[in-house]
Amino acid sequence: HPRNELVVTGLSHPHIETESRQVQSTDSIQAGNMKLIIVGASGFVATELISQALRRPDVTSLVALSRKPVTAPDGENAAKLKSVVISDYGEYPDDVKKELAGANACIWYESFSQLQSLPPAMTYGTVGITPPNLRKYPFDEVVRICQTNTLSGMKAFRETNPAPEFRFLYMGDPFEADSEKKPPFMIEYLQMRAETEEKVLAYARENKFDACVAKPGFMTGGPFNPLRTVMGLVFRLTPFGTLPVQTVAAAMLDQAVTGFEKEHLGIEDLKRIGTKAIEESGKR
After folding, report:
1. At residue 228, what are phi and psi to the nearest 5 degrees?
2. What is the mean pLDDT of the chain?
3. What is the number of other CB atoms lying within 10 angstroms of the CB of residue 200?
4. Contacts for 129 with CB less than 8 Å, ≥ 6 apart
5. Is residue 15 part of a domain?
6. According to the lineage, what is the superkingdom (predicted)?
7. Domain limits at 273?
8. 34-84 per-position pLDDT tens digit
9. Which of 4, 8, 20, 48 lies in disulfide reach of 249, CB 3.0 to 4.6 Å?
10. For the residues of 165-192, what is the DSSP string, one character each?
11. What residue ranges in the chain does DSSP mark as E strands?
């Protein structure tokens, strides 16, 4: 793999320099020191997360971890954004770990665009690739991207001296999270995704993380994409439903900053939390 490199966007906030970082106290967020990491930070959902996080005064440091440089969306203040480029989400060299150190929370936004050979036009939402295209890739590579890398990332955070009440929010798919149940279609893939969610929560419990799986259904909004538009219409007719990406991002940020209501947040939870968060942001 090519060497991981750091790309700094804007200015580093003085209180987040990792050379002399100390363990943050449990009330560090209340004191105004909130360091948030967004992993997989180049997708359309991540772009909305970054936009909203930059507007939140309670997020004082934002690290965008991605396989390509990330810049602040147009019109947003980049002063508290740092872009960190990583060549492989399964490997975390010391220079990358240094940038993750002392984090209060992480939002892990998984996308199949992490596959180097995947054409960007095929990606949409969080599932990342349509079922017919999924079959074009070896399943062990899909497992590596979806499951192995996620657990490697959690291990890396554990090794970087995170804040005592570190929160890890994993963005799952809308299907039932039970690896023992046989789904009606995409059996191997969906069982693996359910197993990943179970492993994320189990790892967090074992290592004293707070963890949550967000299951937002199909997300609408963002730049116009014909495939996403059609899929949004289809998902509206299914039990999984759709939500605007702005609502999903607001809900996930609210939970990452203030704490998780429960281990699984479904579409109705995210709609309620996100709608309230957007209303409250308009009052600030």
Report:
1. -65, -35
2. 78
3. 26
4. 112, 118, 122, 123
5. no
6. Eukaryota
7. 5-9+30-281
8. 999 999 877 788 899 999 999 999 999 999 999 899 999 888 989 999 999
9. 48
10. T-EEEEE--SS---TTS--SSSHHHHHH
11. 5-7, 35-39, 61-66, 81-85, 105-108, 167-171, 210-214, 218-220, 242-244, 264-265
